[in-house]
Every structure is written in C-alpha cells, then in structure tokens.
Amino acid sequence: METKKQNIVILGAGESGVGAALLAKFKGYNVFVSDAGKIKDKYKTELDENAIAWEEGGHSMEKVLSADEIIKSPGIPNSSALIKEIRKVGLRPICDIEFAARYTTAKLIAITGSNGKTTTTYLVHHVLKGGGLLAEMAGNVGVSFARSIIKDEADYYVLELSSFQLEDMYEFKADIAVLLNITPDHLDRYNESISEYGKAKMRIIQNQTAADVFIYNADDKEIEKQLKTHKINAKTLPFSLKDESVEGGFYRDEDQTITIKNKLTMSIHDLALKGKHNVQNSLVAGISGRLVELRKDNIRESLADFTNVEHRLEFVAKVNGIEFINDSKATNINATWYALESMHNPTVWIVGGVDKGNDYEELIPLVQEKVKAIVCLGKNNSKIIDAFSGIVDTIIETQSPVEAVGYGYQFAKKDETVLLSPACASFDLFENYEDRGQQFKNAVRSL
C-alpha cells in the first residue's frame, strides 16, 4: 500500500492540470494549483466549486517546493528554470497521465507519433465502441485522462500521448502501445535532434512486459533506428505499406487491400478515410480491434463508417463545384505532405503561420504535381515564397481567413479544391489551430 502523499502541487491549469487537481482532491490529497499565466474562467469556477486553492500570474515557489509531489503541464519544458529549481530539491515532476494511471485497472491503449495520432486515437476508439466495448478516449484529445478516472467506468482507455507527456512518465505501462511515425516536429524542445525527440517517443514502450503488445510502423526510418537501441519486451506487431511479411497488418498495392492480423482483408475503397497515411491509421485500428478479440465484421463496419476528426482533412462545403477542405491541424511539413498526397483535383493551397523550422524541400514534387496557386496566411511568409516561387506561378499573401478564402474561391474552378493545410503553428494570427480552422469554416460558409 503506497503511503499517502499529502500535498500535491499542480503546475498549469489547462484541461490536464484541472483534471489532475479534481482527481487528486477526489483521492483525498491536499491540492494547490499554480499557473504562470491567466486561468480560464470556467476552470477557476471548477476549482472554486471543489474547494481547490489556486493562483495565477506566477508561482509561489515556497509553496511549490514544499509539495510531496508535483504534476506539471506538458507545455512546461524540463529545461525551464522553474523545473530546474524543483529538481534541485529532489522532486521529479510527473504528468497527469502518469498520476491518473495509478487509479485504474482498465486496459490502456497508448498512441503516439508525430502525425496522425489524433485521427488514430478516434479511429481505435470508434472500432472498440463499434465492437460493443466500454471504451473512453483521453489524453491529448477531449477530456483529460485524470478527469475520466474520477468515475473510472471504462474497460479500455484509448490515450493520445505527445512526446511532452511521455517525457514526464516513469511508471506508466501501456497494455497496447502504438508508435505511428517519428518525423521532425517540436525539435526546438530537443536540441534540434530528431534522435532525442525519437527517444522521447520510444518511452511509450517503457515498463511493457511479454504480456503486452507494441504496434509500430515498419516503414519509418527513424523508428527503425530507435529499435536498434531499445530493448523491446512486448510482443511486436509491425504494420507496413510495403512489406507483406510483417505480422501486424499490411497493404497490398496490386489489389488495393489491407490484411490485418489473422487475415481480416478489406478493400481500401471501403475505408472511410482516404489517403495512404489513413491506410496506416486503419491498419492500427484493425490490429487493435483484433487484439481485443472483436469480430472481423464489427471491425470492417467501423473502419467503413468512421467520420473524420474536426480540422483534420475535414470536408467543409462545396461552393459552385469548388471543394473546401479544412486541415488546420496540419502544423508541420509531414502532416501537410499527407494532405497534399491525398488531393485528387488541382488544388489552391492555403499555407503559413509560425514556422517550426520547416524545410519545404520535400513538398516540392507534390506541389508541382497538384498545386495551381498558393495563398499565404501568416505574418511572415518569406520562407514559403522563397521555396515555391518558380514552381507555382500564383503566390499571394493574406492576413485573414476571409481574405484567404476569397482568393481561394477566385483562383479555383469547378471540380477543383481549396485546401487549408498550414504546415505551421497558428499563434501569429489565431488562438490555436481549432480557432484557425473554425474561422476558415466560417469564411467558407459566408461565401
């Protein structure tokens, strides 16, 4: 029996911090929440209603350092002065996922990767629910895991995990761990090293035993490198779009089918989600469904009737035969590569925002093949203009979604597509990628 840690301090009062505070309070701890910024009103109300003490606009260090345990927001880097000071006194902050996992005996399916993890989390959850299982979705999507654990009514939790969350997880163990890909993203947090970033992603397999399963992308070069330096205790079920000998699931190009563990075969034309990357996501969901012993028919049905996540290749409307697609969630080059790869009509591409060290080189072949005009939507577009002038004749700069959508409508013809897939973060003009996507949709609907 663990000895009760009396005082818990939570750094950051977003959804994950407040969820952790509510769970800690529910479990009988003394809880204090501290946020360097402003706390949203709805969270203040919730903390007050549950008699949880909080502060905003800075940290009372004396109070923070007297904690028995600290739960921190994934947004606070471990290299920050705050965390260094905390570590000096021998405390090791954890994330809300680590804390919440202590209080459930449900099976945990944990999903990470640079791209596609939200869609895959939704899809795996949809397959489990479609098979009649009591499953909830948490982590980086929707409700925080800690908040879900207060009631703890699910038999399965499907958790989307970022590398930032994984960094602060030590005892957590996934029954099924999924690693989709490792591509350059957030490298500013990892000394510009993809290998360091990859190591954070590989923490998804820590504490796994032979009774657990690791599903990973056998085609990913960075994963391949990481596998050489990590001992894998779990049973491995790789998936591939190229190699039909893998044990998890594969795609056969000649007849456009996927085959999942124990021979569940399905035409990719029956999959709800289009594009090569979504074939990978569907393979993961199918393998997960087979692992929890769902019937093949149930899995087929769920993979065929899934509707996509908001802001991820989301169909918005057709206006005079021009299709508008919102892929605001594409905040890095790789995600945008997938979006462009799945376009079948000439495309007006809306791109730009806060550049995270992007190298646009790898998009050039796709842009040559598919893009007829580029509409920049950001404060500083020079890098995009340098990369694509000479490749695309029409490149225009805009400062608002209304303006960007207006140009898109002007440049596109009937049976063509206007695609918002920014390849950048949104913080120059928007609150977050959801705000950007919502404003784009509003602008399309007002055409």
UniProtKB/TrEMBL annotation:
Pathway: Cell wall biogenesis; peptidoglycan biosynthesis
Top enzyme class: ligase
Localization, UniProt: Cytoplasm
Domain called Mur ligase C-terminal: residue spans: 311-424
Pfam families: Mur_ligase_C, Mur_ligase_M, MurD_N
InterPro entries: Mur-like_cat_sf (IPR036565), Mur_ligase_C (IPR004101), Mur_ligase_C_dom_sf (IPR036615), Mur_ligase_cen (IPR013221), MurD (IPR005762)
A GO BP entry: regulation of cell shape
Domain Mur ligase central: from-to ranges: 111-286
GO CC terms, sorted: cytoplasm
Main location group: cytoplasm
Catalytic activity: UDP-N-acetyl-alpha-D-muramoyl-L-alanine + D-glutamate + ATP = UDP-N-acetyl-alpha-D-muramoyl-L-alanyl-D-glutamate + ADP + phosphate + H(+)
Record GO terms (molecular function): ATP binding; UDP-N-acetylmuramoylalanine-D-glutamate ligase activity
Keywords: ATP-binding, Cell cycle, Cell division, Cell shape, Cell wall biogenesis/degradation, Cytoplasm, Ligase, Nucleotide-binding, Peptidoglycan synthesis
Binding annotation for ATP: 113-119
NCBIfam families xrefs: murD (TIGR01087)
Family the entry assigns: Belongs to the MurCDEF family.
Protein purpose: Cell wall formation. Catalyzes the addition of glutamate to the nucleotide precursor UDP-N-acetylmuramoyl-L-alanine (UMA).
PANTHER family in the cross-refs: UDP-N-ACETYLMURAMOYLALANINE--D-GLUTAMATE LIGASE (PTHR43692:SF1)
Name of the protein in question: UDP-N-acetylmuramoylalanine--D-glutamate ligase
Organism: Brumimicrobium oceani
Gene: murD
